[in-house]
Fold these 4 entries.
Entry 1:
Amino acid sequence: MSRTALIGIVLGATIALLNIGCEKSPAPGGQVQGKVTYKGAPVANARVIFSEISANDAVPQEYVALSDEMGIYNLTGGDVVNRAVKPGEYAVRIYQLVSKDGKPLPPEMDAEQLEASGMGKNALPAIYASKTKSPLKAIVKEGPNEIDFNLDGK
């Protein structure tokens, strides 16, 4: 084996070993999922909004998820690289937009525009959708968080 080939092998092995120790660890934060129920039944297509309470940032973080047909939601951060949710205390709002006649709306429809136009309405008690009156709170910690919301008929 030539000296050049041997140096190439040693350099390649060294770089490979260095790369093993330099793998990026996951970004800090929490992974949040849970279930939304109303009077014991799963709530499909509910918008679950976590708004940071004690933010040191100029603009508090807000995270939004949409529940599936079983009422399960998965909250993720807005950063494409770091999908984690910032740990902290959150005020939570939940609403389920339906058509005026009470039929479910497809999740791809723009809920805000439908509500503003009067074409849709919230099927859950209004208190849960209120920025100022919702009694719902959550604390997100590092790592996995299972946060369920069992809504009643207030």
Entry 2:
Amino acid sequence: MQLDPHLSPRSANHRPLTPIDFLDRTIGTFPGRKAVVWREESWTYAEFGRIVARFARFLMERGIGRGDVVSVMCPNRPEMLAAHYAVPMVGAVLNSINTRLDQDSIAYILGLCCCCRMTAVKAVKTGLLCWRIHRWSRWTIAIP
């Protein structure tokens, strides 16, 4: 395949982009625009960026790093969106688990993915990022 000279590889057109790159770019370009709206609350791109950074810091402080698998079991809430940015931000792999699965299916997924951390969201009235992190040595899951 031949490339036109104006399409030759350079930093502007041959740099792999990730969702984190797009978030960073949007924070810089539109910091005051709404990024996330959930029920009565909303967050701007700048606010959401801080939430993601705080969650990433939270993971790093607990030893999560490149190549680790972080399983997140959360309904469709802003916390799940933040996890889709924060987990790869620290170099880890996100394993989203459906909240409607039964106990045996969840245990199978956790055992198969070699998860080093399991993150579950605790529902709260306001604010984001009320996380409980557990190191799993045994896959004992209690589903209310």
Entry 3:
Amino acid sequence: MGLVCALLAVPALAQNPPIQIAVDAALDRHAIHPEIYGVAFGSTAVLSDLNCPVNRSGGNATSQYNWQLNASNRGNDWYFESIAETSATAGESGDTFISQSRAGGSQPMLTIPTIGWVAKLGPARSKLASFSIAKYGAQTGNDWQWFPDAGNGVLTGGAFVTGNDPNDANLPADSAFEQGWMQHLFSTWGSASSTGLRYYILDNEPSIWHSTHRDVHPTGATMQEIRDKMVDYANRIKSVDPAALVVGPEEWGWSGYFYSGYDQQYGSLHGWGTLPDRNSHGGADYLPWLLGQLSTASAAAGHSLWDVFSVHYYPQGGEFSDDVSTSMQLRRNRSTRSLWDPSYVEESWINDFVRLVARLRQWAALYGPNLRTAITEYNWGAEGHINGATAQADILGIFGREGLDLAARWTAPAASTPTYNAMRLYRNYDGNKSTFGDIGVRATVPDPDTMSAFAALRTSDGALTVIVVSKNLSGSTPATIALSNFSARGAAQVWQLTSANAITRLADVAVSGGAIATTLPPQSVTLFVVAGGGASFYTVPPCRIVDTRLSPGLLGGPALAAGSTRTFVLAGQCGIPSTAVSVAANLTVTAPTADGHLTVYPDATSLPGTSLLNFRAGQIRANNAVLTLGASGGVTVLAALPSGTVHLLVDVAGYFQ
């Protein structure tokens, strides 16, 4: 949704105290997944200009899309009306979305309805109403301008219309019906392994269907219903295109992570002390239970039914709005911490430690170690104001630092807004599709409520990229950015977004004594691009350096035990000198007794949020990686599996110095 509030530039007042920002190019190295920079419903021009990797078609209207009629029921978004698209060609809406996304350089993501009903149309493709005023009586709202008979389903006394006929404006549609669309997509576009649709999303926010689509699903969906639907539809998708990636469950937010639709509806009516659906499943939280069920179903099917674990998240304290009062701007600055900070209590009715990205990754690792994680809807509001832009820049940096795999902002911001430019600063800051780096490294700031910083190496040219987000509402801030374990070559380029709403190339700044001295304007996003002197790579004869199948020893047995960490000192072995900063290695796991993953990080550093190698029980899995060495020349390995053991083999082929 485009926001129309005016740009309010906050004048710089007194200078803020100076701060120190520390960047260490040798610590916390991890891949940043480019698909975190996605949007929903981006046009071809916007996708190209934002250099946007993924484009999502989602939202309430997609839950009841009828691919044969090329029409959808808009649900609670617009008076529960079934409305035709312009074209009567079957599947045209999806095909056009795929075509336009591809033309903009993006991977399209399409939503497959699973709710069990799709739109139907009247004569000559006319609209139909689920809550006709002529049939069900006067209601508190209606589409008075375009379709006056379409009511909002709320009687004048305040009660919902109940007992309506879902066939008034919809048709039953099961998984066999939707498989016809899957087959159409496969026949039209090919396999996901080549030119076909890669991402198939399983519906939208099912735990609130009883609200958003109460014309066809007035009773909240149970845990078992969603489990059965996901298994059914995922099996059909994989039968049509085994290379397709299934995305779900697309739950709406915090309550939808823990409680089924049935329990959310029951709790809102009868109190939250007793929740029948939860109780019938042994008190299990909804999404972790669902993850376990789908993991079991995948094992029974002999292949993965679910590839991307996706949720939606909107801050609940009023941030998702045009409100740019001082108090709301400050709250917007703070509340991005709900995405990562284990010490931050979300300040709304949630009143809990959200730490969303880590939570999703931990759930996925426990119940489905090969699952990717995604936040496929989010929005922090104030799109037309610089405060919305600094929040957006903060969010993208957090997604990259915390190891999220995919994200799609709801929706693509208007090209005239600062929020749009905040996204472009990451993906196309110079108009030549130059980007923020793809290998994240450590960046620390003293106070994330007033300043955030993110750093990454760019593998295409070896540059170090640093984004600094000044959240201060007023006053410039002197800053020193100290660069460790990086050999800078020449001055740093500087690109900056302020309340003037333009990405401006500033004069280059010197890198002196391994540091950049700068002054940051209030409410700004600044990108520093530092060319690297480059590290040298030296090969060594292929050498097995770790094998836990061997007799007990520093680089041998025993096997890695569930939940344990073990440090292996690699420097001084296999021709790797003590001056090496990283090694090129192949890691192999054998004989895992349970599903799990390995996290590998420099010794004497904190545990990162990313895994390096995921595996299932009994599998032999391998992965190539560049392992950054810690202070003692070693790496620490965390064996994240619920029980049992796993063996690790590490073969090295070279090192960086």
Entry 4:
Amino acid sequence: MTGKQVLPPGTRPVLGWRWGAYLLLPAQRQLWRAGVPVEVEDRVFDLLLLLLQHRDRALDRQEVIGAIWGRRPVTDATLRQLVYKARRVVGDDGEHQATISTLYGRSLQWVAPAEPVYEPEATAAVDATAGAARAARPGVPVPAAGRTLPPGSAPPRRKRVWFAGVAAAVVVVVLAGLFAALRGSGRSDATAPVPASSAADGEATPAYTTLAVLPFKDLDPDQDQRYVSDGLTEELINRLARMPRLRVTARTSSFVFRDKPVDVREAARRLGVAHVLEGSVQRSGVHWRVRVALVDAHEDYELWANEYDVGAGDLLDMEDRIASTVTATLYPKLRAAVAEPHRTPRVDPAAHDDYLVGLEYLNRRTRNDLARAIEHFQRALRAEPGYAEAWGGLAAAYAVWNDYDSDVPPDEHYRDALTAAQRAVALAPQSARGHAVLGLLAMEHWQWTQAVAEYRRALQLDPSNATAHQWYAMYLWYQDDPDGALAQMRIANRLDPLSPIINIDLGRALLYAGHRDQAVVQYREAVALAPRFALAHVFLAEGYLAQGRNEDGLREARNAIALAGSPTPSSYLAMLGVALCLNDRPEAARAQLAILQARSREHYVSGVSLAFLEAQLGLHEQMFKPLFAAEAAHDPLLQPALADRASPWYADPRMAELRARMGLPQH
């Protein structure tokens, strides 16, 4: 066969597709909007083309993955991000789905009216589009219709240079090279404040610079070493985040770019950073081959690159060296301060493997995955009882359990979380994760002095810890400081801009500070990032109800319940009941309250959920009884209940007693 397209007699070749102001040309791999070319990532273009070619039917998840990634395993998060980017490039979003529709959360279909563009009229259509583009952008070359761009005519791409080296010492050596390269580049975050010149060397030193560590690629043919490449990435993020004057993007946002070809400038733009560290990992016998590159994202060139072959037992040393080198390169004056970085004690390689697998499950944030994370952290600790990082991971898994299974008693895993966090801090006093977990546990037991001290210590150790900023914002909500909480959530969002939960909590911060319309916009952003994240739909429902858009609020409450599965969380049923009541369906709302009351006789149901619905039904006399019960149970759902100044109980005189029981200042 030749590469030429063979068509049945009488069939005209399709040159492209047109819908609205858009024109897509497969041969040229171009997308035009209103006569102006639009930059599109390769896989985004592939998805648009695939959906247009099969616009007469829905394509299931496996069909899409097979067509775009082949046999390579792809997570739901990766596919979700690709759809998100495709919608953005054609002016669509996850709420309206006017162009790309998600069906039942598993299939995709092109739904916008589109028509094929044929030969010969296609030539006129493309020439007209090109003419408009020339008029709009004089001097920009536009290809003639029906011709592909000649080799080399595309914008120049960054050329990669890798040098041979070693894999377990990789992290340490990479950091050294990274810092030398950054020192030579002289670049810093353009938005960072610049203090007065140093008396020591007369040079102005930026207050901080910004860096993202993109997920290291697993080059193993079987793709079964993912936990190593992901774990190496996460360890580098954690270590670099502790370095002075360096702001590092959080793991949640960096990992959005896993399993996809990455345009470094686009990734840096979305993450708001000046530099990017990227690399790959490949197993070679008993060694690991690790390649690392530091990229100046503004100029799009590699400042430094290297390759290392190391044994598994040397990975921790490598991580230390990389982190130290990066910092010393960015800030030469800090070389003395980082010359002797904290060294991670040697641990059993098998224990380290279990720790990395545990981190992978921890970051998936579902009840089943948290259980798996706990299992792997415990296995690591059986092999290495003094492994501080594994204790910190175990503490975090236990501490957030109730957030993803709110129908268990709030204190069910408290003792486990507290013991693990205390052990982590005893073994490694510089553990920001351990201190942040201790702050969360103290806060949820109304120990306010200890909570704020632990949060501040965590942020002192790791100013780039988005979760610590997020949890500190929750503390400020309890303290009736919505503006301070909003400031902390804005910082968390800058550090982790693509995290669905942080986008949700930024929406909450906006809502509690009185910015209802901005809150709804933020909630929509969270839904667009993670359309199947039920919690995002719950808070979007709350935002709509606050705006008086009651039908939209009811729709989103039902969407959340559909996505949550069975059994439906009680807080979701309460939100549904409130939405029904506001839509003039009080009997249906009372039916939801009856369901919650029946549940509460069998197992734990948050008193906040009961009070929320009772208040909406006008049962004001009884709504504080479940709130007092929630206080006695240390229920974390009291936090939004106290933060929302529009709630029916905020101005109730009995609120003073509730706040007094919790040791909180009065309004």
